[in-house]
Amino acid sequence: MPCRVAIFIIGNRGMKLKRLVLLFACCALAACGRKVIETPKEPVYGTLSVTMTSLPSGCSLCVESEFGTEKADYAGEKDGTQAFSLRVPFNADRTTLSLVLPDGRPLFVREITDELSGLEEGKTHVMDEVDAVLAEIDYVEERYGGSNSISFMHISDTHMFDTTLNKFVGLVQQTDVPFSVITGDMYFNNAQVKTVRSSAKPIYLVPGNHDIYHYYGGWRAAGLKPFEPNYCFRYEQLDHWFAGNLADFSHYGSEKACYFYFDFKAGDKTLRLIGLDQYDGGTAGWNERNDIIISQEEADWLADLLGKSENVDGIIIFIHAGFGNANKGQRNTDNEGEFISTTAGDFPRAYSYNGIGDPYLVPEIVQAYISGQNLDKKEFRSGAAHRDDGSTVPPETTVTVTTHFTQPHKNFIAYLGGHLHWDMVEYLKDFPQQLQVLIANGFKEKIYTWHDLSYEDASYTINYCVVNFDTKTFVIHRIGSRKTDSGTYRLEQTFPFGK
Description:
This protein is α/β, with parallel strands linked by helices. The protein is built from 10 helices and 23 strands. It folds into 3 domains: about 1-40, no CATH class; about 45-130, Immunoglobulin-like, CATH 2.60.40.1120; about 145-495, Metallo-dependent phosphatases (Purple Acid Phosphatase, chain A, domain 2). The protein has a 7-stranded mixed beta sheet with strand order 12-13-14-15-18-20-19. Strands 11-10-9-21-22-23 form a 6-stranded mixed beta sheet. Helix 6 packs across helix 7 and helix 9 (about 295-305) packs parallel to helix 10.
């Protein structure tokens, strides 16, 4: 039945009685399910003033509330500073501040309701200075981090350029990451060695072809050091980080090896990180050029270590060069994705794994570990060193692998590397359970034409990675240069593991 409320106001008995009757009427109407029309809240506007640093060009600062959106564009140089002034409501139910890419995706979102609440109309509120990159990292952690997660940063192929390296080391110090990684071709000068060693947190390195054969090999020509390039890299670089208190979780494959593993804890979870040396010519018996060479000793060590990794919660393997190319069947040149170079399909041979070593060696060992289907004396071509006259020493070398895994495993997460100076994140074509993450070089010069970053928005290239053991996700988030030559932006991808 319809609800009827009769309201009688008798005589002039004063405003108090009228208010009481009206209040009763409103309550009665509400009880009957009738909507009480409220007067819309009027915004109380003032000004928000905030200075932001480390800004990428092309982004916009936005303030959003139920009263609408206010927007201000950053028009300065990349990696710069700007003071913003925006009209904002001081009485909104919820107000957020966000930095937004041209494609509409936010780099960070921060609620500022309480900070603005109750301020007087027409006044200016001055916020503390905001570092855009640190705010962005906080936003990544807010969405993907947790008590059982580990975050770290990854760069590669800095090639004696300072821009990415300096930003990387600075962020390692300013954030809560417990460690970070450079996957080869640092080609350090003395000043850069000091920069890396200035970090109070470990920065782990795997050697690239330039580190082993060019940088340290050059010392032989100058008569400065004996030509043991892998050992030089070990002694000059790796030993610094594996000394003292770091020795508890750092383990080399042998006395002079540049391959190693270390473990990090996140709550009650363990992440195992394995660093490989793909230029192990010193152990294999040759030291010429930059062909990829994995020795018998290193292959045996990797198989044995994986067999002892059954109880860790996640495994990431750091490499320099990715596995395979179109000719070897490892890559699908039709693949597209946010973290795949937009020009990748135009260069079917230009992928990775230079030299004539078998790119299946490591993936087959890992696949045996994942599947539980062991390898039995399987031979792989390890490589041959090319001399300047075209001859090889030795003509051909093989590695024989036998594995003894007792069951399938679900704790492999990904390979991380670089080498070809362009982004490529995809599952290996012939090993669809193996994710490969190769990052673009850390400088704007385009040494290779398939590198597609414009470097118009920022001058450095860093991947911020999060491993979350509760959600079983691996997140790759780009810090720095995102804009490609085609106008798209490379920001973030999430991959499952352990399922």
